[in-house]
Amino acid sequence: KPGEMDLSYRSTISIYKSILEQFNPALENLVYLGNNYLRAFHALSKAAEVYFKAIEKIGERALQSSTSHVLGEILMQMSDTQRLLSSDLQVVAQTFHVDLLQHMEKNSKMDVQFISVSKQYELEYRRKANNLEKCTAELWRMERARDKNVREMKENVMRLRSEMQAFLSNSQREAELEEKRRYRFLAEKHQMLYNTLLQFYSRARGMIQTKAPQWKEQLEASRNPSNSHVQGLLASSHGQGYPSGRLTPTHLETVRSTWAAFTVVVAKAALGLGGLTCGPQNPGPTACRGMGFPTCGWEPWWQLNSSHAGGLFWGGC
Amino acid sequence: KPGEMDLSYRSTISIYKSILEQFNPALENLVYLGNNYLRAFHALSKAAEVYFKAIEKIGERALQSSTSHVLGEILMQMSDTQRLLSSDLQVVAQTFHVDLLQHMEKNSKMDVQFISVSKQYELEYRRKANNLEKCTAELWRMERARDKNVREMKENVMRLRSEMQAFLSNSQREAELEEKRRYRFLAEKHQMLYNTLLQFYSRARGMIQTKAPQWKEQLEASRNPSNSHVQGLLASSHGQGYPSGRLTPTHLETVRSTWAAFTVVVAKAALGLGGLTCGPQNPGPTACRGMGFPTCGWEPWWQLNSSHAGGLFWGGC
């Protein structure tokens, strides 16, 4: 079966060629791209760190305010959580760097030696092929000369041929195996990367799942002024004899009404104290408001002014 | 309570100052840092895309090999999974961009107008304070002149004073509220970001959890040649009368034994066919090996040669 032998030889050679000329350069390129990837990752980590450091500083300022203290705590926790996530993600990057890129780089460098395997195979093949050819020619010569050793030589040629077949199929199998090892190496390394990512995603998920409901609750609580520090202060102020009704519009309401583009019910709230030289309390038009304290549902000042009527700007009360 | 009034006034003014001079510039800075963050994120996405595109190409090549076909499929799936994760992560980036950064930027720009609120408060405070002072002086004058309107003026001053107190405490409360709104805005926006991240982590985790066991199984199966295509081919070859014993060492083994630094049991496998001119089959020293096919547990060639004896280079059989 010389055609089959030839096919096996060509297939083996083409596998070695593919390992040396395609797989190995592709692996080198992958190491290069992986290092770019890693650089981009570190740049992102740095950017995230700086961003959440800024959040932390804003949080620190909020901590100093008695009314926004809780929000400061939440912002600080959000920054802390990011720091934990980031250091967890560093583990993934470390895996990628040490277990993938460095290993891939080392292997691609060592695999340059693999060319000798390919050359050795070619030499071995040629030697065997020559030997077989030589013996076949010798057999042919012996048969024509009716040599008494012809039977022995026939056996010899038969053996050489089956050895050649075994050599070719074993070599092909090993070449395929070498190729397979390399692809598997790549697949297994990336399976490891995905496992590390999976661990990261699971931890990250758990971390946020622990924090998020707490933040949500605290944020909702901070929307309700009845729970807040301010309300407590105001209540105690009222207890000390402050007027419980709202006697004067605050300056924010003055601003609101001055800027309001739509018609509002307006009342001039002049003091009307005849005979006194002291000026009127409210020189401008003032929107009528209920006398009770609106404890919640206040709209921020800009809502009357901004184009986002109905939407929230800073949101909430 | 002039001291208390003064305290309230100063506190209100300092909150406005803090919003305008600290919070707002900090928010602007955060938008700037966030845009850097986003740029770094997109650079990372791009790097990841290029990296996994290269993996995909290697996978495509493996697909063309009959023996490494499954590994090619795994590599392609790994690349696909990364693409899905990446497009999922784009949703997080989009949230960050549209719902956080753009909103933060808009608010920080609109909030520049907030200075008028602060100025309005100062004007209003001065007007009220002047009025109160004027009336108090008038009352004092009236009392000295035993004016008949003194009782009316006393009531007027009392009313102005309590109005002033209400104005101050309401204004302080509103200033605190404005401050709180801003901190809460920031906290709520980042809570939203964390929720989006949580969704991403959950999906990513689910995605890898679905794929990983499958990959692991396929990779393990690919380690066992009895399941592989090659083994099937070899078996059928044997069925067609190929020698089932290993008659000749493959070239890889020749390389191995030639390079081996340690002593190996060596046998000269000369053909020893007296009277024949055909050369010996094995010119060099060859390691003795069992005649049976080693179906698994083959060590790669470099293991004898590399400094990593015992460790795996490409690994596996």
The largest sheet of chain A is: 2 strands, antiparallel
How large is the count of helical segments of chain A? 7
Task: Enumerate the strands of the largest sheet of chain A in spatial order, edge to edge or round the barrel.
Answer: 1-2
Quickly give the CATH architecture of the largest domain in chain A. Answer: Up-down Bundle
> Which topology of the largest domain in chain A does CATH recognise?
Substrate Binding Domain Of Dnak, Chain:A, Domain 2
Question: How many domains would you count in the coordinates of chain A?
Answer: 2
Could you report the average pLDDT of chain A, rounded to the nearest whole number?
78
Biggest interface, chains and residues, is: A-B, 138 and 135 residues
Ends distance of chain A: 90 Å
Number of strands of chain A: 2
Provide the gyration radius of chain A in Å: 42 Å
